[in-house]
Structures are given as C-alpha cells and as structure tokens.
Design a protein that fits this description.
Blueprint (H helix, E strand, L loop, with lengths): L2 H6 L4 H11 L2 H8 L6 H8 L4 E3 L14 E3 L2 E3 L3 E3 L12 H11 L3 E5 L6 H7 L4 E5 L5 H14 L3 E5 L9 H5 L10 H8 L2 H8 L10 H6 L7 H6 L8 H11 L3 E6 L2 H9 L4 E4 L13 H12 L4 E5 L5 H10 L3 E4 L1 H32 L13 E3 L5
Parallel strand pairs: 4-5, 4-11, 5-6, 6-7, 7-8, 8-9, 9-10, 10-11
Antiparallel strand pairs: 1-12, 2-3
Helix pairs in contact: 2-17, 5-17, 14-15, 16-17
Bound molecules: ligand FNR.
C-alpha cells in the first residue's frame, strides 16, 4: 500500500506514531519519542488528561461550532499551535516548510525553533500565516539580539523564549542508541540507516543536520576547531534570570511568551518582566523528569494571571478532547510537538495534514458531544477531576 493509502487508514495519533516508528531508523524515532530519565513526566503529560472528566450539557444547538481564537495577537482557526522542534529535517526532507504548509492549510500558528533546519527568512517567505520564533537567550547576547532583528525584518508575529534548558536533559534512549548529533557514521549506524533507504540518503550526505539559523556563525569560525553543534552547546547560559527576560522583552517590543514554566508564581514574574503570555510546559518530558503535567498546572496559572495573557498548555496532547479539557481549565490554546512530528515522519506534509485533521475532528466532535457551540462558552464546570471512589 502507498503512503497516502496508509495515511488514510490512520485513525488517531497513536496510529501515526506506529507508522513513524516503522519508517525511521530506531535512533531517530527514539530521539522524537523519548524523554528524560525514567520518562515519568513524558507519560504523565498524556495520562494526566485521563484524570479529568468532561461534564456535558445537552440540547444546546451544536449545528455550528465557533472555534476561532486569538494567539500571540493573531487570529487562528482553532486554538492549537505547532510547538517548536529542532532538527526537523532529520525526520523528513520536507522539514519545516512541509509542517508550515500544513499549518497554513489548517489556519494554525506555526513556531520555528532556533535549532530548526530552515532559515527563518526562508520560512517567513514561504508561510503567510501567523508565526512565532522560538528563541534562547544565548551567552552571546549579540546573537540573540541578531535573531530579534532578523525576526522583525522577516515579519514574525511573536517570540517564545524557552527557559527550561539551563542544561541538557538526560535522554537515556539516545545514549543507549549511541545517537550523536549529527549522527556519526559507524558500522552500526550505517546498517540502521541503510535499512531505511527513504530516510538515509540525504542523511548520509549530511544535509539533514544543519542548524540553518546559526550556520553563519560557524562559517565565521571556519578554520577553528568548533563544530556547529559544539558552538550551540556552548551558548546555553546557566546564569539567566528574569532580568534577562526584561532585556529581551524591551529589545523585541512585541508578543512574547515564556516557554517552559510551571507555577503561578513564575507566570506572574513572566508578565511582570514584560511577557504577554506563558507556555506551561516541561519540554514534552525531555528536560526535568518528575515535573508536573502541564494540564494539571493550567487552572492555577490562569487564576494567577486573570483573563488577559495567553496561557498555552504545551505537552501530552494526543486527542482533540485533550484540548477541550485544557481550554475548560483556563488555557487560551494548546501546543503539540510529537503529534505533528509523527505525521511528518510517517508521510511528510500529508502526514502532518493527517495529524492536524484528526485532532481538529476530535476537537469539534468533543465540543458537540459536550454541548458547547462556542469555545468562549467553555467553563471550568465542563471538566472535573476524576472522583476518587471509596
Ligand atoms: C522539542 N521541543 C523543543 N522545544 C524548544 O523550545 N526548542 C526546540 O528546539 C525543541 N525541540 C524539540 C525536538 C523534538 C524532537 C521534540 C519532541 C520536542 C519541545 C516542544 O516544543 C514541545 O514543548 C513538546 O514537544 C510538547 O510535548 P508533546 O506535544 O511532544 O507531547
């Protein structure tokens, strides 16, 4: 069966994950799929959604359902955002542009990672929809300021500052698989790649592993001993504080979300430091294992911030009904990483399209079954934590 045929038989994100697993060399699949340490947070991010029940209304006329929302000041067709993911070309040659094209078709906001494999100017030229650049405050503040200027010139609508990576998370699957970035060509990795011919040829040419947005820095260092990966690794700054957020907010002057915080206190600090929103996130369970599931923190963060700021629930979403639960708890929107990456790996742009279609259909069906015809009418009473039974 061809790839399109296989995609049309996919019923949910879990099916797409299985397709991606078949298509990718194991070390590459595990790089997407895995989390830190014992992967407790990775599992909890999703299973926590099952700990909320949806309490429906009936007879509310759900012949038409309003799903439009505003995110980073931009209109979106429904409140889902594509989270930033690095090294996207490693999963499919279509890379970021394939993902962004699918996002545009679905009227969604796309976010490009600093560690992406497409230049932000090329992404902006190809993608007319709402777009956010995921930024880090690097040791070289000049490089961060340069990103801000490039994002302004290219017409990005917002920035998401990732703050949960003072050091790299401990991803043990990558160690067991001997994954290095870029992958080293050993006999073992060659055999693993060669068994996946659709994936491996560009990989063997090395073209999947370019941090396109920072490669000029390494050109500038050409002749020195540093590789691009070493250069980036050396740029993460453990000394960052909220003062640095104030600096970035002033430098940018537009919508800014802090990505990777967990508590109402930090959410308040984010807004006081000049951010316009927060992404409640533990980096998809890839950084601090044992961190709470984002969905469990959403209500407290919303209560702390009041109605104005964007509160984005990031991580663990595998069903459209998960988005409904997060919204009822107070989120403005949700964001997804792995669901669209599984789709990309399984079938390129058509695979991303399938992932987004499935989530959208599930989202609308859940709203109809919950008797909610406008997401603005979703309230906390529509969800409740599972009752513990005697
Ligand atoms: C990520 N994530 C991420 N976050 C970020 O701020 N910058 C980045 O470069 C990356 N790269 C990245 C690569 C891969 C392969 C994954 C799976 C994730 C985290 C991402 O933005 C998001 O927080 C999580 O993916 C959300 O969890 P789910 O949706 O994957 O469960």
């Amino acid at each position: 069966m061809g790839r399109t045929g296989r995609l049309s038989r996919v019923n949910n994100i879990a099916d797409l994950r299985m397709l991606a697993r078949r298509r990718l060399p194991r070390p590459i699949f595990d790089y997407i799929d895995g989390g830190a340490d014992d992967e407790v947070s990775l599992a909890r991010n999703s299973s926590a959604f099952a700990d909320y029940e949806i309490v429906p209304d009936v007879l509310t006329d759900v012949s038409r359902i309003e799903t439009g929302a505003t995110l980073f000041g931009e209109a979106v067709d429904w409140p889902l955002m594509l989270a930033p993911t690095g090294l996207t070309r490693m999963f499919h040659d279509g890379a970021e542009l394939a993902v962004a094209r699918a996002a545009a078709r679905h009227g969604l906001l796309y976010s490009l990672s600093t560690l992406g494999t497409t230049r932000l100017e090329d992404l902006a030229a190809a993608f007319g929809g709402p777009k956010v650049f995921q930024i880090y405050i690097f040791k070289d503040r000049g490089l961060t300021a340069e990103f801000v200027a490039r994002c302004k010139a290219a017409g990005f609508h917002g920035l998401a500052l990732t703050v949960d990576t003072p050091v790299a998370g401990n991803r043990e699957r990558d160690r067991v698989n001997g994954l290095s970035l870029p992958p080293r060509l050993t006999l073992k990795s060659f055999l693993s790649f060669a068994a996946h011919p659709g994936w491996s040829l560009p990989a063997l040419r090395g073209s999947k592993f370019d941090f396109a947005n920072v490669s000029h820095k390494v050109d500038a260092l050409a002749g020195g001993p540093m590789s691009l990966f070493d250069y980036i690794g050396g740029q993460f700054d453990r000394s960052l504080t909220w003062k640095d957020v104030e600096w970035l907010a002033a430098e940018w002057g537009g919508p800014l979300a802090i990505k990777g915080l967990m508590t109402p206190e930090d959410a308040r600090r984010a807004i006081a430091s000049g951010a316009s929103g927060v992404m409640v996130s533990n980096h998809g369970g890839r950084q601090l294992d044992g961190a709470p599931a984002p969905v469990d923190q959403v209500a407290a963060v919303r209560d702390a911030l009041g109605d104005g700021p964007d509160v984005i629930c990031d991580g663990g979403i595998r069903r459209g009904s998960d988005v409904v639960k997060a919204l009822a708890l107070g989120a403005t929107a949700c964001s997804v990483g792995r669901p669209y990456l599984y789709g990309l790996a399984a079938g390129g742009e058509a695979g991303v399209d399938r992932a987004l279609t499935l989530l959208r259909e599930e989202f609308e069906r859940t709203l109809a079954l919950a008797g909610v015809n406008d997401i603005a009418r979703l309230e906390r009473r529509h969800v409740r934590p599972l009752l513990s039974r005697p």
